[in-house]
Design goal:
Elements lengths: L4 E8 L2 H8 L7 E8 L18 E11 L3 H18 L5 E3 L3 E4 L2 E13 L2 E11 L14 H5 L5 H20 L2
Parallel strand pairs: 1-2
Antiparallel strand pairs: 2-3, 3-7, 4-5, 5-6, 6-7
């Protein structure tokens, strides 16, 4: 299994912004998780709203990724998250540009950002928001694992399962 660094916070403005601002201090495969984000965001600077302590909000830092592997990054995350949700009895579908849906409702959002020089992404930050225990979404077309299965989940245990699944699929897609 690939080794990784994990830092967990009660609250951050954004796990992705934290990694982008501090990437030079962390090694490849650093994962930042927060129980709450005050300025979570998705594609096109859209706000990612999430109740405190109810969902999985994290970002992954990758370093020195070849630009020709950029398509594989998206495949890796998509396949890993779909595999994870399938292990929970949920069959999400990928919807462009970077979301997982069950029917018409968003279950997860993904945001991939990079900083590059020449033919290598020096830094890739992948932000992920998974709706787990939240049941009220204030007018948004969204769902969660809890609304779909009628169960509440231990976020720490589930997070471990998500990371293990992502690390297994990372090796397959990015030939590590």
């Amino acid at each position: 299994m690939i080794s990784y660094t994990l830092l967990e916070f009660d609250e951050l403005q954004s796990t992705s912004d934290f990694l982008k601002e501090n990437h030079s201090y962390f090694p490849h495969m650093t994962i930042i998780r927060a129980n709450y984000q005050t300025k979570g965001r998705g594609q096109f600077e859209r706000t990612w709203s999430s109740n405190k302590n109810e969902n999985l909000l994290f970002s992954i830092l990758l370093k020195n990724v070849k630009i020709n592997q950029s398509g594989k990054l998206k495949q890796w995350i998509m396949e890993g998250l779909i595999t994870f949700f399938q292990s929970q009895g949920i069959l999400p579908e990928f919807k462009e540009p970077n979301d997982l849906y069950v029917g018409e409702n968003k279950l997860a959002g993904i945001l991939i950002e990079s900083l590059s020089l020449e033919d290598t992404f020096d830094v890739v930050v992948i932000g992920i928001g998974l709706n787990i225990n939240q049941t009220v979404f204030d007018g948004l077309k969204a769902c969660s694992l809890a609304t779909l299965t009628k169960h509440r989940y231990d976020l720490h245990h589930l997070f471990k399962d998500v990371i293990e699944t992502l690390l297994k699929t990372y090796q397959h897609y990015l030939n590590v």
